[in-house]
Every structure is written in C-alpha cells, then in structure tokens.
Automatic annotation (TrEMBL):
Main location class: mitochondrion
Tree of life domain: Eukaryota
InterPro entries registered for this protein in UniProt: UQCC3 (IPR027896)
Gene Ontology CC terms, in alphabetical order: mitochondrial inner membrane
Name of this protein: Ubiquinol-cytochrome-c reductase complex assembly factor 3
A Pfam family annotated for this UniProt entry: UQCC3
Main function: Required for the assembly of the ubiquinol-cytochrome c reductase complex (mitochondrial respiratory chain complex III or cytochrome b-c1 complex), mediating cytochrome b recruitment and probably stabilization within the complex. Thereby, plays an important role in ATP production by mitochondria. Cardiolipin-binding protein, it may also control the cardiolipin composition of mitochondria membranes and their morphology.
Membrane spanning residue stretches: 6-27
Keyword terms, alphabetized: ATP synthesis, Membrane, Mitochondrion, Mitochondrion inner membrane, Transmembrane, Transmembrane helix
GO biological process: ATP biosynthetic process; mitochondrial respiratory chain complex III assembly
PANTHER family (UniProt xref): UBIQUINOL-CYTOCHROME-C REDUCTASE COMPLEX ASSEMBLY FACTOR 3
Localization annotation: Mitochondrion inner membrane
Organism, scientific name: Culter alburnus (Topmouth culter)
Length: 81
C-alpha cells in the first residue's frame, strides 16, 4: 500500500511540474515581443543612458564624501554643533 501511495504522489508531483512548465511556456513572450521590449529599455537610448551614468556618478561622489566625513549627515544641516 505504501508503494502505491509513493507512486501516486510521484505521478502527481510530475503532473504539477508539467502543468507549471506548460503555463510558463504559454505565458512567456515570443521572439518579436522580446525584441520590442529590448528596444524600449533605457539602455537602448544613448541620451538616457548618459543621463543615468551622470546621475550614478553624482550619487557615488555623494556616498564617497559621506564615507570620508565623521559627521552624521543624515541628521541634516541644523544639527551640527
């Protein structure tokens, strides 16, 4: 009886995995849709990419300055003694 239960459980598990894979295959976008999505990414636009690089460089500079100071800059300007 135990072996029958093990077999049914295994078959059920394989069935659930197959159903999940089938649903994923149906829902996933096709090749043309993937190409269209890649065209619309921010990295595809050179101007937008350059803006992102500048913003990242500014943020890194702010973080570097914050790491080099002993002041708690999170408290704001008014709390300095």
């Amino acid at each position: 009886m135990s072996s029958m239960r093990t077999m049914l459980t295994s078959i059920g598990l394989v069935g659930v995995v197959c159903v999940g894979y089938g649903m994923w295959a149906i829902i996933s976008p096709g090749e043309e849709r993937k190409r269209e999505m890649l065209k619309n990414l921010p990295e595809a636009n050179p101007v937008r990419m350059e803006e992102s690089r500048k913003r990242n460089a500014l943020m890194m500079q702010v973080l570097k300055d914050a790491a080099e100071t002993n002041d708690n800059i999170a408290r704001g300007i008014g709390s300095q003694k």
